[in-house]
Write a structure and sequence with these properties.
The complex is a heterodimer of chains A (464) and B (141). Chain A has 464 residues and is mostly helical. Chain A folds into 2 domains: 229 residues, no CATH class; 204 residues, no CATH class. Chain A contains 17 helices and 2 strands. A two-stranded antiparallel ribbon of chain A has the order 1-2. Chain A is elongated, with a radius of gyration of 29 Å. Chain B has one domain: Ferritin (Up-down Bundle). Chain B is built from 6 helices and no strands. The chains are: A mainly alpha (464), B mainly alpha (141).
């Protein structure tokens, strides 16, 4: 299970609650602990602020626009303004106030973990975006969507609200250990404006919080866990999908062989899945199963792509994954063994089928992305076909190709009619996998965050 | 229709030279024919044929990458569409004969006295052609 953004901020929320309950119930046993906790509290606020700031302005490009205007007006309608005012009212952004103690390095408190997790969550999102907002993964569209980031801000605002309201509990616990009022007031200044602004920010951000938002975003790193073939299959497919995305968006590899290999993998995966379901694909039937039809569509695409003369060798990294996936699929569903009917629903079979269907789904998305790659390749004039393979119909439509054939050229630039045929094959694959959303399906479901049942907002009103 | 395939294949085997261009032409014809055949048979046979075609196509591409002028100049032969009433084992024999022709031409190309890069290429291409040939030979009828 890979950690998602939702997991990280959700666990940070749990840690914040745990830390608060710890302070409220046990208080401090000596002034040193009080000092450490106050330092940690400040660090947590800083982490929340940095996280919210990143969500508003990931590339730090608008820092100049965000300085507060109309300070202290919590009734503003602009989320950015409210957030900027909030940050300003929390104190200086870069310097730690001199009166704020630092926690000892060995001091252990849930709030420290929460700050770490909030930082990790920012880093997780940052892996998808380059320094100039350039997308770096297929999930980057989600991260770069301001609407989604504003939605994510709602939860952060709720956590900030909770953290800010903890000051009364900390202050009361400090007073129990006879820390003088002057000191407590210095450590925990009056933050009523900040609280009002946070409340307003939560209200405004909640309007954007729809659907699952950023919760299912995972790290943009694709390690492969070997050992369990089912797990490995999933990991490799994620890596392949990322590679296919990169081919389409960032780094095109001028080889039609990669597309050809991916189409072959599509055929293999769908056929093995059909076999795992016990579908009989040996007899040609008038209405074949969807999996069989998709496998055929992929096969036709592969045969069609083979006509192009490949300008260069394929990307070796993608190829390794393709070969490995083919191996794994053949390993978990051997075709020479008769398929069992799906009456047995033991967990192992279900996991295997789930992995196989995930593979098919990812391959549908990959084919969709490959269509873009193919279009790029054909525009770059790198696709050549042997002249002999062009039929009369294509030649009659294309005078350049006819002239080339008459002068005896052995290979020519692929004529538009020929390219169109391949695009039609891609569209056929698209139609066969049409039930799959064109956008990436979330890979790992984040665990839903529920605040601990012990927490009641009314309990924070100054009760230690 | 496998009759015309066998005539075509015999013509290719006769006309191509004993050089890389010849190997390329033979592999091209074999790959194309295997792919065409794979679309006509049921999916289980078709997938294995497609794998074999992928192997021989890879061998052909390797020749093309090592000698970029070869695909420009060599003869690209398509044996033409196969009919519906095809005899799989006879067609398979035609393709195997094409692959065998390529293997025969590879032996002198990879012999001692050739450039090391050519010897390595002949070995790589040869192993892929053999893999494709194995699949075709082991095919269930």
């Amino acid at each position: 299970m890979r950690a998602t953004y939702g997991d990280l901020v959700g666990r940070a929320g749990v840690d914040i609650h745990t830390g608060l309950l710890q302070v409220m119930r046990r208080g401090f046993h000596d002034p040193t602990q009080a000092q450490n906790t106050v330092g940690t509290y400040y660090d947590l606020l800083a982490a929340l602020r940095n996280h919210a700031w990143w969500l508003l302005d990931p590339a730090k490009a608008r820092s100049a626009d965000l300085p507060p205007q109309g300070r202290g007006r919590p009734d503003h309608d602009d989320l950015d303004r409210v957030a900027a005012n909030l940050f300003a009212s929390l104190g200086p952004l870069t310097q730690r106030p001199v009166q704020m103690p630092y926690p000892e390095p060995t001091f252990d408190h849930p709030w420290r973990d929460a700050a770490d997790k909030l930082g990790a969550a920012t880093d997780l999102l940052a892996t998808h975006v380059g320094p100039r907002y350039e997308p770096r993964s297929e999930q980057a569209a989600l991260v770069l969507d301001l609407e989604q980031r504003h939605g994510a801000l709602a939860f952060i605002a709720a956590l900030t609200d909770l953290t800010l309201n903890a000051d009364s509990a900390i202050g009361a616990a400090c007073r129990h250990r006879d820390i003088p009022w002057e000191q407590v007031n210095q450590w925990l200044p009056d933050r009523s404006t900040t609280k009002a602004l946070t409340h307003r920010m939560h209200q405004l951000a909640s309007q954007h919080d729809q659907g699952r938002g950023l919760r299912d975003v995972t790290t943009n790193i694709y390690p492969v866990r070997e050992g369990d073939p089912v797990v490995e299959l999933g990991d490799r497919m994620l890596r392949l999908r990322h590679a296919a995305w990169q081919l389409a968006a960032a780094t095109p590899d001028y080889s039609v062989v990669t597309l050809h290999d991916l189409a072959g993998l599509g055929m293999a995966a769908h056929m093995h899945t059909a076999h795992a379901h016990g579908i009989d694909y040996r007899e040609p039937s008038t209405s074949p199963n969807r999996l069989v039809a998709t496998a055929r569509a992929f096969q036709r695409l592969m045969v069609d792509l083979d006509d192009y003369l490949a300008p260069g060798p394929p990307n070796p990294a993608i190829r390794v994954d393709i070969l490995a996936v083919r191996q794994i699929v053949a390993e978990i569903v051997p075709l020479h063994r008769p398929a069992r009917a799906l009456t047995i629903s033991d967990p192992q079979t279900r996991n295997t089928l789930e992995a196989l269907h995930g593979t098919c789904e990812a391959l549908g998305q990959i084919a969709h992305m490959n269509q873009t790659v193919f279009a790029t390749l054909s525009r770059s004039e790198l696709l050549h076909v042997p002249t002999r393979l062009l039929d009369g119909e294509t030649l009659s439509e294309d005078p350049i190709a006819t002239a080339a054939k008459l002068t005896g050229a052995r290979r020519i630039l692929a004529p538009m009619a020929r390219v169109r045929e391949t695009v039609q094959r891609y569209e056929a694959v698209d139609a066969a996998t049409g039930h799959i959303a064109p956008y990436v399906a979330p890979v790992a479901r984040a665990t839903a965050y529920e605040p601990p049942a012990l927490y009641r907002p009314a309990e924070f009103e100054g009760r230690p | 229709m496998s009759y015309t395939w066998s005539t075509g294949a015999a013509a290719v085997l006769e006309h191509v030279g004993n050089d890389w261009a010849g190997v390329w032409s033979l592999l091209f014809a074999a790959t194309k024919a295997t792919f065409r055949l794979s679309l006509l048979v049921p999916l289980d046979l078709g997938a294995e044929l497609a794998y074999a075609a992928m192997d021989s196509g890879e061998a052909r591409d390797e020749v093309g990458w090592a000698h970029p002028d070869v695909p420009l100049a060599a003869l690209a032969v398509d044996l033409g569409p196969a009919s519906q009433s095809l005899d799989v084992s006879a067609t398979r024999a035609v393709i195997v004969s094409l692959l065998d022709g390529a293997l025969h031409r590879l032996t002198p190309l990879g012999a001692a006295g050739r450039a090391p890069s050519d010897r390595q290429l002949a070995r790589r291409v040869g192993s892929k052609v053999l893999a494709a040939r194995d699949v075709l030979m082991d095919l269930r009828p």
